[in-house]
Design a protein that fits this description.
- The longest helix has 12 residues.
- With 201 residues, this protein is an alpha/beta fold.
- A four-stranded parallel β-sheet has the order 5-7-9-10, with no helix packed on it. The protein has a two-stranded parallel ribbon with strand order 1-3. It has a two-stranded parallel ribbon with strand order 2-4.
- Helix content is 10%, strand content 13%.
- The protein has two domains: 57 residues, no CATH class; 135 residues, Leucine-rich repeat, LRR (right-handed beta-alpha superhelix) (Alpha-Beta Horseshoe).
Amino acid sequence: MSAYIIQEKTLTDIADAVREKSGTSDLILVGDLPAAISNIQTGGGDSQWEEYWRKTATHFTLPEGITSIQQYAFMNHENLESVEGINEITWIGEYAFYNCKNLVLTELLKFQGAICAATFYGCEKIALTKLNTTKIYSLAFSGCKGLTNITFRSTPMSIASNAFQKCDNLTVINVPWAEGEVANAPWGATNATINYNYKEE
């Protein structure tokens, strides 16, 4: 099932507009929206239609050319398993994937910005192993049980003291510097060992 992130209009508004244009009164699923709507980016509305999608959708395809995911975009989409096109993303807002318990994510190839507050909070199945990010904010990866080892590919400027809180299976964090370590290590990952001055082979 394909869908789009909605910002300036609620899903109900869009549904009504499509019904009026098409003359149908049938339930319109998110995947049935006209392609033109893909240009409306993120955010919100608690409409019944959005709630229906939130409970049922498992796969999401980002519209071509999208390079950012706004805050709260997928918040509480507990059945979401995959987001096609996420490796083209360069920025993700806070709480964007909050509580997406079934999201499987192993790579963020082009992402180099900050990981905002609670972006991946409660995403139990993500298993990122490499990060290019420079900053990680509060609770960004809290409860991410799928994290086991992480290598920072660039030197981060700051990491919140609880960024990896409740990441019980995260046991190895590799960082590419020896002196001037970022404060509060291991940043909530109480079972993790930090390897300083790490160099990838």
